[in-house]
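Sequence design from tokenized structure. All designs in this work follow the same two-part layout: the structure record, then the generated sequence. An example of the structure record is given first.
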């Protein structure tokens, strides 16, 4: 059905189309009736101590204000991450700020953490408890005087209702945010978060979302700090500011973060590098170009234990989880395995 409507949807401004998608999910207009593999043991896994139906999550950015996480669980996602949420409400960058590159199966966005703020989102989640594993992605306000403290505010606000909290240091659309990848600043940030968790007596797992544009020496330093503080997982990766040279669409030079198919190979290479350094002590959630069973399969082979997607759903429609599982199952059966976890990191064996 989505393929019939796609050409019509793609005539609408991408941000307006996204808002319509959120409204349709609120009304339960999107269903997951075509998923033949719901509950299949081949996909079942444990994430942060909780059993999940499958390792396919929706990335932060789709449900920014935690409005439709329960309908997203109904679509078949094994886990949902909402946000990025800042302490105070903010509009984000001026419109237009989302661009659809159809020939490249990609998006460019420069939204800039547009959201309704932590209090609004917190009260919404507390009044509508999640029916699945929920991650909450936090970040600082653009005009804050203390970015590090903004992360602590987010932690205090959400630690008791999140199954995990993602510390987003990797959006290219908040000026100088990626400076947190620097060794000293990254260590200070994670140390402060761990100290705050002790004060709160919180056991909520911390996840860090990193940029795909980091240098090789930063990969080593980040890995050392992640291991030092026993951070539970890393999300590899956010959108990229590079990878424009081979794109076809005329919008390819728009400022912002590029997501979707052009990010797939870059993300897989980065996952492999982290996998070799982290040696299974820290889980990897792979993001970038996941839109099929084959693309998820490649993420697992590279070393990801779970995957997330967003742009893939824009191009493939709301039944994407069922379609991924169907194709992935065929690949796993061909490999002769009983559960997808048996192939994690197999590229390195």
């Amino acid at each position: 059905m989505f393929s019939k409507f796609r050409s019509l949807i793609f005539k609408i401004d991408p941000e307006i189309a996204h808002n319509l998608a959120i409204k349709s999910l609120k009304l339960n207009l999107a269903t997951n009736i075509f998923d033949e593999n719901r509950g299949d043991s081949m996909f079942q896994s444990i994430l942060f101590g909780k059993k999940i139906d499958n390792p396919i999550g929706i990335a932060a950015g789709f449900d920014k204000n935690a409005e439709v996480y329960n309908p997203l669980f109904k679509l078949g996602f094994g886990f949902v991450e909402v946000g990025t949420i800042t302490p105070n409400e903010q509009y984000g960058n001026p419109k237009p700020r989302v661009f659809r590159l159809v020939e490249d199966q990609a998006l460019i966005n420069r939204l800039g953490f547009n959201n309704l703020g932590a209090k609004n989102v917190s009260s919404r989640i507390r009044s509508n408890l999640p029916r699945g594993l929920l991650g909450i992605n936090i970040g600082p306000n653009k005009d804050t005087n203390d970015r590090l403290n903004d992360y602590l505010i987010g932690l205090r606000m959400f630690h008791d209702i999140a199954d995990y909290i993602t510390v987003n240091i990797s959006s290219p659309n908040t000026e100088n945010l990626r400076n947190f990848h620097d060794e000293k600043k990254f260590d200070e940030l994670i140390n402060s978060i761990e100290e705050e968790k002790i004060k709160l007596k919180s056991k909520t797992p911390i996840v860090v979302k990193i940029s795909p544009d980091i240098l090789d020496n930063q990969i080593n330093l980040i890995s050392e700090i992640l291991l030092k503080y026993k951070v539970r997982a890393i999300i590899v990766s956010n959108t990229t500011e590079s990878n424009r040279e081979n794109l076809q669409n005329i919008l390819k030079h728009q400022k912002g973060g590029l997501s979707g198919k052009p990010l797939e190979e870059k993300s897989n290479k980065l996952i492999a590098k982290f996998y070799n350094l982290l040696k299974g002590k820290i889980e990897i959630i792979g993001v970038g170009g996941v839109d099929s069973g084959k693309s998820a399969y490649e993420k697992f082979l590279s070393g990801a234990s779970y995957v997330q997607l967003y742009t893939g759903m824009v191009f493939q429609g709301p039944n994407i989880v069922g379609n991924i599982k169907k194709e992935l199952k065929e690949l796993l059966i061909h490999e002769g395995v009983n559960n997808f976890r048996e192939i994690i990191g197999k590229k390195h064996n």
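The chain has one domain: 2-348. We note this feature because it recurs in several other targets discussed in the main text.
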